[in-house]
Amino acid sequence: MSRIGKKPIDILENIVVELEAGIIKVKGPKGELSWNYSDRINVSVKGGNIFIERSGDSKVEKALHGLTRNIISNMVIGVSQGYQKVLGIVGVGYKAQVVSDKLVLTLGYSHPVEFQLPEGIKASVDTKQTQITIAGVDKQQLGQVAGSLKALRLPDAYKGKGIRYLGERLKLKVGKAGKK
Predict the structure, then answer these.
(1) Distance between CA 105 and CA 3 in Å, rounded?
(2) How far apart are CA 47 and CA 69, in angstroms?
(3) Mean pLDDT of the chain
(4) Closest CA to 4 of 68, 72, 66
(5) In the CATH hierarchy, which top-level class contains the domain 9-80?
(6) H/E stretch holding 72
(7) Distance of alpha carbon 145 from alpha carbon 94, whole angstroms
(8) Within its chain, how far is the Cα of 95 from the centroid?
(9) Cα 112 → chain centroid
């Protein structure tokens, strides 16, 4: 049996979990999430815990067992605490600004790049305009938005200019060798 899948998920006192036919809905102080889980997996709520069980022992069901448990656990954490990612902008003249529900980024192109934030994702920028903090309830959506922002200007291999996750270490290439 899956070690991850068999661990029960604790439900905090301010979270409501509803089960319908193949759909789990989790409501909390930060928001509400719902997800369609596979019909090969059985989800039940008993005494303040969520239990995930699989119907058989095929390879697919074993994989879905741990996956389902982690996704539901991420939903519970998301509606109670929320998630956030921090991106850093490195480069002379590179900066970001939040304008209503858009991020306006100056990334060395001939024009500013406007990035529309999806519903449920909030962004803030520090005073130097070089650090973007994005926050949301859905961990998957937050990671997708962070990846899309990073893809707007990937870090350069020689100087390291671009957008990166805070704390991400880059191995920079050596430039041209000097003349002999």
Answers:
(1) 44
(2) 17
(3) 91
(4) 66
(5) alpha beta
(6) helix 59-80
(7) 19
(8) 22
(9) 25
Helices (H) and strands (E) in the chain, counts: 2, 13
For the chain, the C-alpha Rg in angstroms (whole number) is: 21
Instruction: Give the whole-angstrom CA distance, residue 145 versus residue 140.
Output: 9
Query: How many residues can be counted in the chain?
Result: 180
Amino acid at 30: K
- Whether the pLDDT of residue 37 is over 50: the answer is yes
- Read off the pLDDT band of 115 (50, 70, 90): very high
Angle at 130 (CA atoms; ends 125, 135), nearest 5 degrees: 35
> Quick one: 66 exposed, middle or buried, by C-beta within 10 A (0-12, 13-18, 19+)?
middle
Please state the rounded mean pLDDT for residues 77-95: 94
Q: Which amino acid is at 4?
A: I
Q: Please give the structure tokens belonging to residue 179.
A: 């003349």
* Nearest in space to 134 (alpha carbons), one of 154, 112, 111, 115: 115
Q: Which CATH number fits domain 83-165: 3.40.50.300, 1.20.140.10, 3.30.70.20, 3.90.930.12?
A: 3.90.930.12
Full-model pTM: 0.87
Contact 89, 131 (CB under 8 A): yes
